[in-house]
Specification:
By secondary structure, this protein is mainly α. The protein has helices at 2-16, 18-32, 35-66, 69-82, 86-100, 102-131, 141-170, 174-180, 187-215, 227-251, 255-285, 288-293, 316-340.
Amino acid sequence: MTQPATSAILERLRARYGWFDHVMRANQRFNEGKGNYFAAGLTYYTIFASVPLLMVGFSVGGFVLSHQPDLLRQIHDKVRSMVPGPLGQQVVDVMNSAIASRASLGIIGLAAAGWVGLNWISHLRVALSEMWKQRGRSAGFVRTKLSDAGAMLSLFAALLATVALSVLAGAAPMADVLGWLGIHNAPVLDGILRGVSVAMSVLVSWLVFTWMIARLPREPVTVASTVRAGLLAAIGFELFKLVASIYLRAVLHSPAGATFGPVLGLMVFAYIAARLLLFAAAWAATSPENLLATRVGPPDPAVITTRVQVDEGLSARQALAAALAGAVGALGFSRVVRRLR
């Protein structure tokens, strides 16, 4: 009795509120397109890509420190003071070996990051195509990889821009920025600058998500049909980044949180961001204008199969078996008749 009652309530709500009906359609498209499965795959590739990116970061740091001997000496002294004894010297030796092999470390890191990045962007494009129910044919291995590489570089640049604006709005104190400009004790101006930074971050995220939803599927769709979905994803993404920054500030105070908190935070961040993007794509694909514009393909051609059965009569073996059965039956019948007489 509970299930029919719940279904009836949902149907009434869907009939009364158009936005709720749209949410239910988007959720159904998300589930039919295996959104959770693709979000988990994107999370895996994101975590996997962090290792070669760290290698590239260490390589860049090695090049910088190799030309700053005074800074390197200060870091060595800081490490020895924090980790006294032979263990501190081992950490210093590891740092020196990493700096010495900075070139090879950077090359390997870049190659691995490129390979993982191509797999990540390919997985993302397949996931977005599923949200749009696209079943297009592949354009060829080389052409597809070149297209994925261009999309990956463009997306990486856009994500760096929105993350930089978010850091400027939240992490970097605006009072320091105003102090550099010679302006002190201006809380109103500080609030205005924060608001402008947040608005710019939302604007950049809006453009990025709109472009991703419209252009990353294998068969690009019109940008106009994804503007509202991109805005929905941008607002959700900014709110989630705010929650994530609060989480990181809360867990980094303890040693266990400092060790495992960033890794868990990155996993949760990647998974929620992937789900948000795919749900926004499902929202765009199930909007009324896109549902009306969806092309219905022709049905599959009918295949008529003629079945011909040829009766060739009894074979020689079958005729012999039938004759023997008849003879045995006649002999038995004659014996029964004689006994009755």
